Amino acid sequence: MRALIRTGPSKSLTLTSDLPEPSSSDSSQSYIIRTHATALTRDELTWPEPLSIDVPIPGFDLAGTIISAPTTASAKFKPGDEVYALTTSTWQGNAKEVSIAVENELSLKPKNMNWEEAASVPLSALSAWQALFVHGRLTPPSSEQNMKSQNSGKRVLVTAASGGVGIWGVQLAHLAGAEVVGTCGSSNVEFVKGLGADVALDYTETNLKEWVDENKDARGFDVVLDCIGGQTLEDAWKSVRKGGRVVSVAEPPDGKNPKEGLAEGVEGVWFIVEPNGGQLGEITRLIERGECKGMVDSVFSLEQWSEAFERLQGGHVKGKVVLRLDREIERH
């Protein structure tokens, strides 16, 4: 099968056409899946974990059709099911024509998304879900009005709000009933407002810390989802209310803790997203109800992998860069 392989500890990649396909004999508990699309993540070629296996492959988002399933009676999915997932159980990514996933990574693909749209969702949406509702301790969104009211009065800041994780952070925090502020470039202000942000701050014109300091009681945050790191993360610490949390997917927040000028009891959290088919199923329901959506910045064929990574690393990407694995250009 065709596959994109990391050829060593560097960022070098090679496209091959003779990688052996996985089979059900490789693991009796795994699903074999025909890969239709995978999404790429900025800086994933610097991650050490994928290099722990013999054949490292990028792309940890998966959208595809199940070819074979475990033979156990309890298997949740069956051949022919259209699924999507964040897969890290083997740390071999999905920029290959046939993939393997375990059951707790999988969810049925949203019926109202094509393959490329579905591939843009799992890693980013699960990162935002876990940042807000596991580590940020907000109550997840629900159709129940009283569930939303549990977050009433809570204020959430999402930095890089037009990026892969930021898009989901804004939407999910809004759906959960929190007041949401997102930072972005000037060209994305209206886009971020359209996602549900109550305020979209143009970082080229507005200094976050100064903006908050103008009225910290009203503008301070209970949860910060930081997707940038650096000076932005340091400023975020001073923008949090008493007892609030700085949750970072960019870098460990404690290293940017300014120590002084902080509200009482502010905590920093660093985490790495984990596959979770149950949480992805909740996200699927929100998507199918039309309450939130993924965002595809651009789509490339597997043979165009070099252009795809150039687009990704160039910055100012709106949403996800996706690789299409189907040999024929066909959309579902």
From TrEMBL:
Q: Where is the Enoyl reductase (ER) domain?
A: 8-323
* GO MF terms, alphabetically ordered: oxidoreductase activity
Q: Mind telling me which Pfam families this protein's record contains?
A: ADH_zinc_N_2
Q: Which residues form the signal peptide?
A: none
**Low complexity composition bias: residue spans:** 12-28
Checking CDD domains in the record gives: MDR_like_2 (cd05289)
Q: Would you tell me the Gene Ontology cellular component terms?
A: mitochondrion
What superkingdom heads the lineage? Eukaryota
Annotated region described as Disordered, given as residue ranges = 1-28
**Do you know which SUPFAM superfamilies this protein is assigned to?**
GroES-like, NAD(P)-binding Rossmann-fold domains
What is this protein called in UniProt? NAD(P)-binding protein
Q: Which organism is it from?
A: Zopfia rhizophila CBS 207.26
